[in-house]
Amino acid sequence: MAHDEIVDHYSALARTALAGQRITDGGFGPACYDDTAALPDGAVLASLGCGNPVAVADLRAGETVLDLGSGGGIDVLLSARRVGPHGTVFGLDASPAMVDLARRNAEQAGTSNVRFLHGTIEAIPLPGHAVDVVISNCVINLSDDKAAVLAEAFRVLRPGGRFGVSDVVTAQVLDEQARQRAEQRIGCVAGSLTVQEYRDLLAAAGFIAVTITLTADHGDGVHSAIVQAVKPAIGPGLEIRPMREGDAEQVLAIYQAGLDTGQASFETTAPSWDAFTASRLPHLRYVAVDVDSGEVLGWVAAAAVSARPVYAGVVEHSIYVHPGCQAHGIGRALLSAFIAAAEDAGVWTIQSGVFGENTASLSLHQALGFRVVGTRERVGRHHGVWRDVMLIERRSAVIGA
Ligand SMILES: C[S@@+](CC[C@H](N)C(=O)[O-])C[C@H]1O[C@@H](n2cnc3c(N)ncnc32)[C@H](O)[C@@H]1O
């Protein structure tokens, strides 16, 4: 089935469920669960999965989860319970009617830490490094571009993030007759990958620690399976190198992600590349890059504070680490390299301003020789709130000593 036919098919099922009738699609569904007690009937009866990915996902309180092809939302609601009030679960589905059904089910369940998004799993409408866990239930087999789905899952996961899905796989390539027989019995078999193809595509996307566990035998070599993999954590292979023109998109995306936290700056929108580049010194801009994936994970850059010769060795810096990649030592590696490069360039004072609430940034800077020289009290308004800015600076012990 082509993508549009698939969406029409599931939209029709969703409308039936919205009308209060039971739906079924190839024999799978609620039977895969034994933990649905407190869920609304609407969510349980609309279940069209082929397993229970939540049961094996080892979700922890506070985590962010994404369910690819969330349908009526059963796995989103089950995940929401596990991650608790400080976690968030996104459900993504290409069928607007399914999104409506899922929202209604969430409302009936009284669940507030969930968000249902309309979109495709081949182009996930979330930024990179946004989620801890990707789950899915009997959806990836339907996609006509599984490589894109797995690459997108990899992109949105944080380093060290987990991929755990239920899906239909085949033990070996099925001949046409076997495929047709299986398709008549359980549907959604047509696009299934073999176990080896799944492994190869996950590895090509960058995943490691791949395991595929067959959970139910549907005959003719067709199985339900739990597929698990991990996005590698940031290893020792972190490279700090000068920022290049080609880094523009990733640098600005990290800048925006930092601004979106509300703790980085009074600014709310990242500048254009032209504006960014015009105001920063070309020889004092660095990026931290994951050498395995080539991804930019953070950046540091400096601007001159004055055109007066007396201040020639004084710069103001900004440092941004992708919010999804913090606590991996990236900020420390970037700032250390920047300080060394600045001293090589004859800089004697590096200064900046940090919101008082940004304790992580203050600790990092203090650990590398910055001191707080004062607090500018309620110096500017940010989203309507007057905020303090701590002025920090690092006086070099070697330049102009
Ligand atoms: C077999 S149902 C599974 C629904 C749900 N995961 C469950 O376990 O009940 C497949 C779901 O995936 C959605 N879907 C299919 N292809 C998709 C795609 N390429 N992008 C996003 N959603 C898709 C369908 O609209 C449908 O809701």
From TrEMBL:
Q: Which GO terms describe its molecular function?
A: acyltransferase activity, transferring groups other than amino-acyl groups; arsenite methyltransferase activity
Give the reaction(s) catalysed: arsenic triglutathione + 2 [thioredoxin]-dithiol + 2 S-adenosyl-L-methionine + H2O = dimethylarsinous acid + 2 [thioredoxin]-disulfide + 3 glutathione + 2 S-adenosyl-L-homocysteine + 2 H(+); arsenic triglutathione + [thioredoxin]-dithiol + S-adenosyl-L-methionine + 2 H2O = methylarsonous acid + [thioredoxin]-disulfide + 3 glutathione + S-adenosyl-L-homocysteine + H(+); arsenic triglutathione + 3 [thioredoxin]-dithiol + 3 S-adenosyl-L-methionine = trimethylarsine + 3 [thioredoxin]-disulfide + 3 glutathione + 3 S-adenosyl-L-homocysteine + 3 H(+)
Q: What is its EC number?
A: 2.1.1.137
Q: What keywords does the record list, in alphabetical order?
A: Acyltransferase, S-adenosyl-L-methionine, Transferase
Which parts of the chain are coiled coil? none
Q: Which residues form the N-acetyltransferase domain?
A: 238-392
Q: Which CDD domains match?
A: AdoMet_MTases (cd02440), NAT_SF (cd04301)
| Pfam families recorded | Acetyltransf_1, Methyltransf_31
Q: Which domain of life is it from?
A: Bacteria
**SUPFAM superfamilies to which the protein is assigned, alphabetical:** Acyl-CoA N-acyltransferases (Nat), S-adenosyl-L-methionine-dependent methyltransferases
Could you confirm whether the keyword S-adenosyl-L-methionine appears in this record?
Answer: yes
Keyword S-adenosyl-L-methionine on this protein?
Answer: yes
Q: What family name appears in the similarity comment?
A: Belongs to the methyltransferase superfamily. Arsenite methyltransferase family.
Report what the protein is called. Arsenite methyltransferase
